[in-house]
Amino acid sequence: MERRRILGIPFDDVGTDEALGKVEHFLHDGKIHIIAYLSLPTLMMARRSKFLRIFLEEADLIIPTGKHILWAGKVLKRPIHEPVDPSLFTKLLMNQSAELGKKVYLFGGKDITVDKVYSNLKREIPRLFVLGKYRGNYPKRMHEDIVQAIGKASPDYFFIGLGSPFEELWVERNRERIHAKIVVLVGRLFDLFAGNIRKTGSYRNIPGSGSGTVREIPQPRAFRKLWWIPVFYVSVIIERLFWKH
To answer: How do residues 17-31 score in pLDDT, each as one tens digit?
Structure first.
């Protein structure tokens, strides 16, 4: 697997089958492994945040997502050979966990979102073994109890959906204590799986429930930085013109 870069931010040019194979391999080496998605918002935040850049550098698998990232790969002559849909791949990981008889923990979303995610996923993947779930907007006083409970559960797959950079910060501070083998940062996909986001526009026909694909990880309105898009495109063109290596 070759690790490439867009505007200095790393990603792995890996297809669905290869990525699933690597995750299964990760389960057997006794280490904690981080899987992240590289979307336009994450890339732009990482360019401004040393913490996020270091976090991504240390991640074990970084899957590029979204039309903007695909475009940049083509322009910079670092093409992404197989676009991976983040919502579909996340469900494939959950299906993999069921086939391997592994334990899953769902953590994130607001209020009852994670409960709706659990109900919807169990309908799609009946054998999914969810040993625990908890909402992301919990009171601070409960933090220690929640981390200890996750650590006692020792999930094989820990899916965290707090949105960037909050989920990266949470994982960095608690990764050694939750005793998870695979940590998957899913951003706001829990809102998609829960049905909080309407299946219209870019999110019509969620994989697993119909035809079509979702190429972007949904972002809440507060995180939609429209100026990121032209800045990103200009930066990519500048790198294409002046990058000599």
So the answer is: 999 999 999 999 989
